[in-house]
Design brief:
The complex is a heterodimer of chains A (about 140) and B (about 200). By secondary structure, chain A is mainly alpha-helical. Chain A has helices at about 1-20, 25-40, 50-55, 70-75, 105-120, 125-140; strands at about 60, 65, 80, 90. Chain B has one domain (about 5-195): Transmembrane di-heme cytochromes, Chain C (Fumarate Reductase Cytochrome B subunit, Up-down Bundle). The chains are: A mainly alpha (about 140), B mainly alpha (about 200). At the A-B interface, strand 4 and helix 5 of A face helix 2 of B.
């Protein structure tokens, strides 16, 4: 009986983990990207939140506009953002204030590819993605 | 060759406008830069479908919903007949085509509805992820239906020596020859069944 209930407990907790992303899963993703970056470049210095922030606020000229990630997600990714094309509100990007963010690798990869192509015209590197999440994890309310 | 006016101006304009709206929505779905255009194309598609549904409930001849009843069994029978080289020609939508039109209208509306809810995130139904999934699935289903619809149009055109694409541009189709069964038989029978 105890065995059954403990099995159920493990099952339940693993289910809730996969359904609810949180800071811990975001950290795991960051670690994964760090490992990939290390694979690609053994000289990789590891993740840097400062580099991530610089990447987040770096402005590029696209379609005659000066844009950065921060253009839509504001200079504080823990806050709600606003889409610069549609004007629609965007839920906070930071996993610290939005537990729906950075839950699954597939979703995160899809969104990185989409947004990186939209802004810098290519997919981001593992190092850039890792730095990005490392920075988001330092943000707060 | 004697011709018959089948598709009225509204139906033709509706058809090609919906093709355009869907094509625009399709090419703009991926980029954030095209978000606004994508939403407008979606709203346009939704309004077009609603207008078509209104039109289908008015006295509009072959465009009226009664002229092409939703009848999945007849549709299956018609496909069976095609496979056995026994399908007869219909001036309006054949039973399989009719089923396709209802599927396109229904899935189209569902796609626009979920699209509106995704675009206005958090409005009415606060289930972003579920809505995004539903919107994606119904969109791809719509694309698959369009593919089947085009395939059906081509098959029908070849089998019955018709030019259905041309008919949707000009509105005219060739009249049925005497050797071809009268195309209204099915509809008359179907309507009578409902009346009694």
């Amino acid at each position: 009986m105890r065995k059954l209930s403990s099995t159920l407990l493990i099952l339940l907790s693993s289910l809730s983990l996969s359904a609810q992303a949180d800071v811990a899963t975001a950290q795991k993703l960051a670690d994964k990207y760090a490992a990939i970056a290390q694979h690609i470049d053994p000289q990789s210095p590891g993740l840097s939140a400062e580099e991530g922030q610089a990447f987040f606020t770096r402005e590029l000229t696209i379609k005659g506009k000066q844009v950065a990630c921060a253009s839509c997600h504001t200079s504080n990714p823990a806050d709600s953002g606003k889409h610069i094309v549609t004007g629609k509100p965007i839920r906070p990007l930071s996993p610290v204030t939005n537990d729906k963010r950075f839950g699954s690798v597939e979703k995160v990869e899809k969104n990185f590819t989409k947004h990186c192509n939209d802004i810098i015209g290519r997919d981001c590197t593992a190092q850039e993605k890792g730095n990005f999440i490392a920075y988001l994890l330092t943000t707060g309310k | 060759m004697s011709t018959k006016y089948v598709w009225d101006r509204f139906v033709r304009l509706f058809h090609w406008s919906l093709v355009t709206a869907f094509a625009v929505a399709f090419v703009t779905y991926a980029s954030e830069w095209d978000r606004l255009l994508h939403a407008y194309a979606g709203y346009a598609a939704g309004l077009l479908i609603l207008a078509r549904i209104c039109w289908g409930n008015m006295r509009t001849g072959y465009a009226n919903f009664h002229a092409f009843p939703l009848h999945p069994i007849e549709a299956a029978r018609y496909i069976w007949q095609i496979l056995h080289g026994q399908s007869k020609r219909f001036i309006g939508h054949n039973p399989a085509g009719s089923l396709m039109i209802y599927a396109l209208l229904a899935d189209g509306l569902f796609t626009v509805l979920t699209g509106i809810l995704v675009y206005n995130d958090g409005w009415l139904i606060d289930r972003s992820e579920l809505l995004q999934t539903l919107h994606a699935w119904s969109s791809w289903t719509w694309l698959a239906l369009v593919g089947l619809h085009v395939a059906g149009v081509l098959i029908e055109s070849i089998l019955h020596h018709d030019n259905l694409i041309g008919a949707m541009i000009t509105g005219f189709k060739r009249r049925s020859k005497k050797s071809e069964l009268p195309d209204h038989m099915f509809h008359v029978k179907h309507r009578m069944r409902h009346r009694h």
